[in-house]
Design brief:
The protein is α/β, with parallel strands linked by helices. Helices cover about 45% and strands about 15% of the residues. The chain contains eleven helices and eight strands. Strands 1-2-3-4-5-6-7-8 form an eight-stranded parallel barrel, surrounded by five helices. Helix 7 (about 185-195) runs parallel beside helix 8 (about 215-225) and helix 8 (about 215-225) packs parallel to helix 10 (about 260-270). The radius of gyration is 24 Å and the shape is globular.
Length: about 325
């Protein structure tokens, strides 16, 4: 050493390579550490009005905050009649009601209109501040292979002007993977994810209508990635097409039936999902509350919410 304390030592070629390799390993290890400690998805809840049957909006809106939600999804007949209530009371009164209770209108669900007759509803959504309309795809159904992919491509092409119209109003059209429709199978969902490049067109994923395989459902979430715009926390349980004892009917809800939501929630975290989560089920017959009283419905939604939050991925130690 020559006594110059400020002289920078020169690394040999071999030492430099060792240092570079060590630095790369540290960087990789740091990335792995960050990935392992990726935070759980932040579940943003929205409350489905139809869970309360045909209860008046004046009674439902105070429940939104109680369920941990910030927004409401307004359903029409036959599942509820809150959409019809909005028209009966007038848009201005409904907007005032939302403001009074500190609730946002998030979604207008309109399966009754279908994907190609939403023009008027898009205007209502814009006026009232809703950012999404959920509907179904319609047929054809039962396709597979190349026929299915072509049909999905044709559907996406037909949706182009509707998605553009939605975009001009700040609205996204979400297509649910409803049974008995074109988008009713895992392959159809994958094709939609690959082909639906329109910015304001996405998928509302309902596990109820798909095989009750948590790994498969998690894989679909990852495949959809940013095309997943809405998530129903809803499993098949014993179904919703025939009258069952109430305890069995409630098995559609998270934590009641056998589907483990943990892998699905982890996948939502992997894609950095920022959309709404809607705790959901259908009663039999349609149009009645899922339980007899408004308080009981809210309590059941909260039970399902506690289950979901208990299944969120925990940060891992490096």
């Amino acid at each position: 050493m020559n006594g110059n304390l400020h002289e920078t030592p020169v690394l040999s070629r071999r030492a430099f390579i060792r240092a570079a390799v060590a630095g790369s390993a540290a960087a990789i290890g740091g990335a792995a550490f960050l990935a392992a400690r990726r935070p759980a998805p932040e579940l943003r809840y929205i409350l489905a009005s139809c869970l309360y049957g045909k209860t008046e909006l004046e009674k439902i809106l105070p429940q939104v905050e109680k369920t941990g939600a910030t927004h409401i999804d307004v359903w029409p007949l036959r599942h509820g009649n809150q959409r019809e209530q909005v028209e009966a009371m007038g848009h201005e009164r409904f907007a005032a009601l939302l403001e009074r209770h500190g609730v946002g209108l998030g979604i207008l669900t309109r399966y009754d209109l279908g994907p190609f007759k939403l023009a008027g509803e898009l205007d209502v959504a814009k006026k009232l501040g809703a950012t999404m309309i959920v509907t179904g795809s319609g047929g054809p159904k039962g396709l597979s292979g190349d026929d299915l992919r072509r049909a999905v491509a044709q559907f996406v092409e037909k949706m182009k002007p509707h998605a553009e119209a939605a975009g001009k109003r700040g609205v996204t059209i979400a297509i649910e993977n409803h049974s008995g429709t074109l988008l009713s199978s895992p392959d159809a969902v994958r094709h939609f994810a690959d082909l639906a490049k329109l910015e304001h067109l996405g998928l509302a994923l309902a596990p109820y209508h798909l095989p009750q395989n948590a790994a498969l459902l998690a894989g679909l979430v990852r495949h959809l990635d940013k095309k997943l715009v809405h998530f129903y926390a809803w499993q098949h349980g014993k179904g919703c097409t025939k009258k069952l004892p109430k305890a069995e009917e409630l098995e559609q809800l998270p934590g009641r039936g056998s589907l483990d939501f943990a892998p699905i929630l982890a996948a939502l975290g992997d894609i950095d999902y920022r959309g709404w989560t809607e705790i959901f089920m259908h009663p039999v017959p349609r149009g009645i509350p899922i339980l007899e009283t408004t308080a009981a419905v809210t309590a059941e939604v909260n039970r399902a919410r506690r289950y979901l939050e208990s299944r969120l991925p925990k940060p891992k130690d490096a």
